[in-house]
Amino acid sequence: MFKGFYTVATGMIAQQRKTEILTNNMANANTPGFKADQSTIRSFPDLLLSAIGDTNIPTEKGLNIRNHDPIGALNTGVYLQETLANYTQGSIYETSLTTDFALINGTMPIDQESGQTGTVFFRLEHPEDGEAYTRNGNFTLDGRGYLVNSQGLYVLSNTGQRIQLQDDNFQLSQDGNIYVNNQQVATLGISFSANPDELLKQDNGLFRTVDGENLPTAYGQEGVTFAMQQSYLEGSNVDSAQSMTDLLTAYRAFEANQKVLQAYDKSMDKAVNEIGRV
């Protein structure tokens, strides 16, 4: 009986966590460059049950042979195994702001070990040392003319330097070069991740490496092609209709587990207050 309580509780916890992930995805459906989270639910290792007994052999010595008959597997519940971001390209839309950049994937190699397709990111200077990465190209100029993101993190050039401009009267070419009065002043920093599943997803659409090491530059990487478009942004890759369907499914699964838990509770109530009284 108590095993049933634990099994149902694990199902409710897993569905609650899945609901939180889907809700966060839908809340960021209009966030530029947002990558939707995907969850995987799996069961705990199964227990193989067998009935153990004795078989009497009618002999003079009365031999007993122990035997066991397989009953089947018993599952002990489920859990949310991991949460991974979906790095597929979001839709591109125009903003008419010269400080908005859209990063467009071209051909990306597939990692031989993980089978994951690589992707590229804008390079940002992280305040805690090292670099952070994002697909959100909604940039602006701060009071000193430095190109920053919406959290005030400096956008880095391909050489790892901050990009300073006099005003927003500049041009960004598709290959990442920034021009002022037809003179190249910097190359926008773009980094490449061969296996983006190994990155840590943080708040505000930022990604960082697990070990704190910087990702390699995407320029000159074999098999990597990409382009940039000024005055455009990459939208979120959240599928709102599918997310709503998955949210309702998770809610119904949570509700079903809840009803089973209530049934267990009623059975325990009868066992304690009625059967026990007899």
Automatic annotation (TrEMBL):
<dbReference type="GO" id="GO:0071978">
    <property type="term" value="P:bacterial-type flagellum-dependent swarming motility"/>
</dbReference>
<keyword id="KW-0969">Cilium</keyword>
<keyword id="KW-0282">Flagellum</keyword>
<feature type="domain" description="Flagellar basal-body/hook protein C-terminal">
    <location>
        <begin position="229"/>
        <end position="273"/>
    </location>
</feature>
<dbReference type="InterPro" id="IPR010930">
    <property type="entry name" value="Flg_bb/hook_C_dom"/>
</dbReference>
<dbReference type="Pfam" id="PF22692">
    <property type="entry name" value="LlgE_F_G_D1"/>
</dbReference>
<feature type="domain" description="Flagellar basal body rod protein N-terminal">
    <location>
        <begin position="5"/>
        <end position="35"/>
    </location>
</feature>
<dbReference type="InterPro" id="IPR020013">
    <property type="entry name" value="Flagellar_FlgE/F/G"/>
</dbReference>
<protein>
    <submittedName>
        <fullName>Flagellar hook-basal body protein</fullName>
    </submittedName>
</protein>
<dbReference type="Pfam" id="PF06429">
    <property type="entry name" value="Flg_bbr_C"/>
</dbReference>
<dbReference type="InterPro" id="IPR037925">
    <property type="entry name" value="FlgE/F/G-like"/>
</dbReference>
<feature type="domain" description="Flagellar hook protein FlgE/F/G-like D1">
    <location>
        <begin position="118"/>
        <end position="180"/>
    </location>
</feature>
<dbReference type="InterPro" id="IPR053967">
    <property type="entry name" value="LlgE_F_G-like_D1"/>
</dbReference>
<keyword id="KW-0975">Bacterial flagellum</keyword>
<dbReference type="Pfam" id="PF00460">
    <property type="entry name" value="Flg_bb_rod"/>
</dbReference>
<comment type="similarity">
    <text>Belongs to the flagella basal body rod proteins family.</text>
</comment>
<keyword id="KW-0966">Cell projection</keyword>
<dbReference type="InterPro" id="IPR019776">
    <property type="entry name" value="Flagellar_basal_body_rod_CS"/>
</dbReference>
<dbReference type="GO" id="GO:0009425">
    <property type="term" value="C:bacterial-type flagellum basal body"/>
</dbReference>
<dbReference type="InterPro" id="IPR001444">
    <property type="entry name" value="Flag_bb_rod_N"/>
</dbReference>
